[in-house]
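Structure in, sequence out. Go:
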């Protein structure tokens, strides 16, 4: 670690370049030339990007030199004592030059944002069964063919076809008030005249059980705030989304006529967020919709004061017979072990609101552009990199399940399956899981090594135990699964809402995601050891 004396004078990591400069000081400085490089970098960046005076610029140059000297001194002390400077990174050391080449080329310019414009602005939202989804499927295949990818194809999948129709929610007591809603995917509709009833506001299932028969003949509102967390949690999404999934069934069991939920969102600005629901073994199916966090809180406050709240809910939602869709596949074939496969991708479908930009147009485009970057650089790895754009993640997971089924015979040769489905904000690292605990431990050590290549992005974090929904069906086959992670503090502002539009995507952060995916995929597809294995592959 750098001394307090040195770091106290450093620029904060929150500055546009602060984090990367500090990272440069903390890694790999071995020579006197490094001292002057870091000092010059501090000076140039502060002068050019922050507009500091020459006097201040000189001060920061001296700080940079001190920082570098501190690192080198610590390295020398550790070397003299026979200790190691840092955790060994043999994989990263082998691929550092290749990684820098990929990253620099990607950040210098790529076609990811252009692809996002075509997907989001020209096609828009892409719900399963809709013409827009099938247009997006065809667009993605054609885009990969245009980029020169190999074995581009569509693998047919039958998907659910739920149609929203017109919908409205109106408060008629204690005052007239129109409430924006989004019906939950899979919900039944209401009668044409709608359902008018008093509201029973509850926080969770325990509240509903306690109130018992009070729910009969009412519209139950589940107001479960995902911002109320347990220690160590960022968002309590898992609990909040439970009521989106099964709230209607719980309310129906108590005799309710309909169910509305607080949107599973961190913030909404009176924008509702939709998502999938399921009836399970419910004897009576009642309609279900989501309202904004603000309106859920307002109704709950009224009910807490004993004010009778009455609503009229109207929904035309219906489920049609399954429709034809497809997973989209394109490859960069391996030079030595082409039958060994590194899979990466996202889901091409989205909810029928917004443009599906972060969820998950960005994940799809980042994967598409990642192999495009490699192809342009003529960097063909030893193994095949296969981009898969799964269909129907949002309300059925048919694409992920179908892929695992169709490719069952070759899953033993799937080195890893990577999913990007958390938005394309600044990359932070990866999640990793494997059915085999021993193999997971080996893979985790290898990935920590590889992730050291991304210190310039501060994208070196590795978490264990979760990857992604679409790759999940491959877990039982023993495939190592990974989920691309990003700085998602704003993700649930837009998730499943009309606000998930292209203007929320930062082109620079999108490029960073492309760079990380391209580099990780290349290294995993090229290194002698298979991820999770200690035995080298045989030629």
């Amino acid at each position: 670690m750098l001394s307090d004396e040195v770091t106290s004078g450093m620029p904060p990591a929150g500055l546009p370049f602060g984090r990367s400069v500090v990272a440069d000081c903390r890694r790999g400085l071995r020579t006197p030339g490094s001292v002057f490089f870091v000092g010059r970098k501090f000076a140039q960046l502060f002068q050019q990007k922050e507009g500091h005076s020459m006097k201040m610029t000189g001060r920061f140059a001296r700080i940079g030199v001190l920082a570098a000297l501190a690192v080198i001194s610590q390295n020398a002390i550790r070397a003299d004592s026979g200790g190691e400077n840092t955790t060994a990174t043999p994989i990263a050391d082998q691929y550092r030059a290749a990684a820098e080449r990929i990253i620099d080329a990607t950040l210098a310019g790529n076609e990811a944002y252009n692809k996002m414009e075509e997907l989001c602005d020209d096609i828009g939202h892409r719900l399963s069964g809709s013409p827009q989804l099938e247009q997006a499927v065809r667009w993605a295949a054609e885009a990969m063919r245009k980029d020169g990818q190999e074995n581009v194809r569509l693998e047919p999948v039958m998907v659910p076809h739920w149609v929203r129709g017109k919908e409205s929610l109106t408060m008629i007591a204690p005052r007239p008030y129109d409430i924006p809603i989004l019906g939950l995917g899979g919900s039944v509709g209401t009668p044409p005249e709608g359902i008018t009833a008093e509201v029973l506001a509850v926080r969770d299932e325990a509240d509903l059980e306690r109130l018992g028969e009070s729910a009969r003949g009412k519209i139950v509102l589940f107001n479960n705030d995902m911002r109320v967390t347990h220690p160590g949690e960022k968002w309590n999404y898992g609990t909040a989304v439970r009521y989106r999934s099964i709230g209607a069934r719980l309310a129906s069991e108590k005799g309710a006529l309909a169910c509305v939920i607080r949107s599973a969102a961190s913030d909404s600005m009176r924008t509702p967020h939709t998502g999938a629901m399921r009836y399970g073994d419910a004897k009576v199916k009642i309609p279900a919709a989501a309202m904004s966090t603000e309106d859920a809180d307002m109704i709950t406050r009224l009910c807490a004061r004993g004010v009778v709240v009455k609503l009229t809910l109207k929904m035309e939602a219906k489920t049609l017979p399954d429709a034809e869709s497809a997973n989209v596949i394109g490859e960069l074939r391996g030079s030595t072990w082409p039958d060994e496969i590194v899979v990466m991708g996202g889901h091409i479908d989205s909810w029928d609101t917004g443009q599906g930009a972060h969820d998950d147009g960005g994940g799809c485009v980042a994967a598409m552009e990642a192999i495009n970057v490699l192809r342009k650089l003529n960097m063909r790895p030893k193994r095949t990199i296969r981009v898969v754009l799964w269909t129907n993640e949002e309300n059925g997971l048919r694409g992920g399940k179908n892929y695992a089924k169709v490719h069952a015979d070759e899953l033993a040769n799937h080195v890893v399956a990577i999913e990007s489905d958390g938005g394309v904000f600044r990359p932070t690292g990866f999640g990793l899981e494997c059915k085999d605990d021993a193999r997971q431990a080996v893979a985790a050590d290898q990935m920590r090594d590889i992730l050291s290549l991304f210190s310039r992005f501060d994208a070196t974090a590795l978490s264990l135990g979760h990857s992604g929904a679409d790759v999940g069906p491959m877990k039982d086959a023993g495939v190592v699964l990974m989920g691309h992670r990003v700085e998602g503090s704003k993700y649930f502002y837009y998730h499943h809402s009309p606000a998930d539009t292209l203007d929320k995507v930062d082109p620079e952060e999108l490029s960073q995601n492309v760079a990380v995916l391209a580099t990780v995929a290349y290294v995993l597809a090229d290194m002698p050891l298979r991820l999770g294995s200690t035995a080298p592959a045989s030629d």
